[in-house]
Specification:
The protein is elongated, with a radius of gyration of 27 Å. The relative contact order is 0.14. Helices cover 32% and strands 27% of the residues. It starts with 15 loop residues before the first helix and ends with a strand. The strands form two sheets. Strands 1, 2, 3, 4 and 6 form a five-stranded antiparallel beta sheet that branches. A four-stranded antiparallel beta sheet has the order 5-7-8-9, covered by helices on one side. The model has no long low-confidence stretch (mean pLDDT 87). By secondary structure, it is an alpha+beta fold. A hairpin with a 2-residue loop joins β7 and β8 (135-142).
Length: 151
């Protein structure tokens, strides 16, 4: 074993290159974190549009398994599942009733959509718009005849 008691060439600390590398990594991480913080408000609108699409798909599937008609009516800050033109007695997935209320600032607009026993919404496509503070964020289109839900 080679032990040195007083090595005057040995230096303690970081090199300039190591310090710069640490600052670059910290800068990149903070830039990513800041972009996530400032765009977090858009996540709630996108999440609500996804919830609406899943509820529309649920009502569409109910229409395929029933003789009557199923649909969805939109009322600005909420929407309700319909069965034979009346508010449905079912509970929407992950809800407490047939109505889903949207958070403040998010609105949904469109004509009432009704699916027949074949899952068709009719002979023309139906458009539903999800907005945040008056600005359109996403438009959901239900294809004529097939009831395919797309955005």
């Amino acid at each position: 074993m080679n032990c040195r008691k007083n090595d005057k060439n040995r230096q303690n600390g970081f090199t300039l290159l190591e310090v710069i590398a640490v600052f670059v990594v910290i800068g990149l991480l903070s830039a990513v974190a800041m972009s996530r913080i400032f765009s977090a408000k858009d996540y709630s609108v996108i999440a609500e549009a996804d919830i609406l699409k899943s509820h529309l798909r649920y009502v569409h599937m109910r229409s395929l398994s029933d003789v009557g008609t199923w649909g969805m009516s939109f009322n600005g800050s909420s929407y309700t599942a319909l069965q034979d033109g009346n508010p449905a007695t079912i509970i929407l997935p992950n809800e407490n009733s047939a109505t889903h209320t949207l958070p403040d600032g998010i609105t949904v607009s469109g004509s009432t959509v009704t699916f027949d026993e074949w899952g068709s919404p009719g002979t023309s496509p139906v458009s539903i718009t999800v907005s945040k503070d008056g600005a359109t964020v996403e438009t959901i289109v239900i294809t004529a005849y097939t009831g395919f839900i797309q955005s």
